[in-house]
Automatic annotation (TrEMBL):
Similarity-based family: Belongs to the sigma-70 factor family. ECF subfamily.
Protein name stated in the entry: RNA polymerase sigma factor
Organism: Nonomuraea coxensis DSM 45129
Subunit comment: Interacts transiently with the RNA polymerase catalytic core formed by RpoA, RpoB, RpoC and RpoZ (2 alpha, 1 beta, 1 beta' and 1 omega subunit) to form the RNA polymerase holoenzyme that can initiate transcription.
Residue span(s) of domain RNA polymerase sigma factor 70 region 4 type: 140-189
Record bears the keyword Lipid biosynthesis: no
UniProt-listed InterPro entries: NTF2-like_dom_sf, RNA_pol_sigma-70-like, RNA_pol_sigma-70_dom, RNA_pol_sigma-G_actinobac, RNA_pol_sigma70_ECF_CS, RNA_pol_sigma70_r2, RNA_pol_sigma70_r4_t2, RNA_pol_sigma_r2
Pfam family, one: Sigma70_r4_2
UniProt entry keywords in alphabetical sequence: DNA-binding, Sigma factor, Transcription, Transcription regulation
Keyword hit for Lyase: no
RNA polymerase sigma-70 region domain sequence ranges: 31-95
Superkingdom of origin organism: Bacteria
């Protein structure tokens, strides 16, 4: 994301809106940046609802600070600066927005406030708004949460958005040396959190699901609807990582233990065995929305969402989310 990418006519229109003092005119011209700013806030916060709130806070701050815009940077850069600092202010106040120890043997932390990001709310032009698939996937979002807030901001501005060190330093009111040091530390943490993953976040990345991913999610849905426990087991890797948010307890288990655990918890038993599922995507990952019909009910009601990370035709990670009461997912509440 460089200043040169914004046409001069747009910048002139923005300056005119600032000088007009007309809040509706100002809102119309800043609104075009909503989706990309919301993705930026989501990378900082890992929570869709928080990202919505902080994007709105960004627009409010931009209006209140409109006289500070002098045209030295593009309107987009100016808005990103405001959004980043709004997120940092939020994180300073919300001490519950940090990974917690998993409580399981060995090292491990959980991001209990993590929420999925609906693909329909991503910017329409991924290349234009610098949304690479790897930087919206759940594993990346979780890894970023392990960075201290200011280090996190430096990493996102520098390695995701591609800002030069001088611009990031100005936005965060740091020295260039401080930004460089913070970025080096952040990169070390990201390599530890994402071993074996591609770490060149600014180069182009694919945005389409693979045939493998599409096939696995179809098979997962088919097995779920038929209560085919053997079929489900065959889709899972033996080193499956499973978490059901917002509950605590990330588990790494064999495929058989995972399915046995679901059954012992009541799934696929009488009263919880009438499923319908819908294929969807969130965070540019394959997902299944699971609907359950309980005895006496005439409809299947939205229950959970299962987000799948597929490796070599098997489910390596399954992240479950409570999908009830979240209309922003864009899913029908009943089938």
């Amino acid at each position: 994301m460089t200043d040169a990418r914004l046409p001069g006519a747009d910048e002139a229109a923005f300056i005119a809106a600032v000088r007009s003092g007309d809040p509706e005119r100002f809102a119309r011209i800043t609104e075009r940046h909503r989706r990309e700013l919301q993705v930026h806030c989501y990378r900082m916060l890992a929570n869709y609802e928080d990202a919505q709130d902080l994007t709105q806070e960004t627009f409010l701050r931009a209006w209140n600070k409109r006289e500070s815009f002098k045209g030295h940077a593009t309107p987009r850069t100016w808005l990103y600066r405001i959004a980043t600092n709004a997120c940092l202010d939020f994180l300073e106040k919300r001490k519950d927005r940090a990974p917690l120890p998993s409580g399981l043997p060995g090292p491990g932390f959980e991001v209990l406030y993590l929420q999925p990001y609906p693909d329909r709310m991503l910017p329409e032009d991924p290349q234009e708004s610098v949304v690479a698939r790897e930087t919206i996937e759940l594993a990346f979002i979780v890894a970023v949460q392990h960075l201290p807030p200011r280090q996190r901001a430096v990493f996102v501005l520098r390695d995701v958005l591609g800002w030069p060190a001088s611009k990031a330093a100005e936005a965060l009111e740091l020295t260039v040396a401080s930004v460089t040091s913070a970025l080096q530390r952040a990169r070390v943490t990201m390599r530890e959190q994402l071993p074996g993953r591609r770490l060149d976040w600014r180069s182009p990345a694919t945005h389409e699901l693979s045939d493998d991913e599409r096939g696995v999610v179809r098979s997962y849905i088919d097995a779920h609807e038929r209560n085919d426990l053997d079929g489900l087991t065959s889709l899972l890797r033996d080193d499956l990582r499973f978490v059901m948010l917002p509950e605590r307890g990330t588990l790494v288990m064999t495929a058989k233990d995972a399915v046995d655990g679901w059954v012992s918890g009541g799934l696929f038993q009488r009263g919880r065995d009438d499923w319908r599922c819908v294929t969807t995507t969130v965070n540019r990952m394959p997902a299944a929305a699971l609907y359950l019909r309980t005895p006496g009910d005439l409809e299947h009601r939205l229950f959970t969402m299962a987000v799948l990370h597929v490796v070599d035709g098997k489910i390596a990670e399954l992240t479950g989310f409570d999908a009830t009461g979240k209309p922003w997912l864009g899913l029908p509440p009943t089938l």
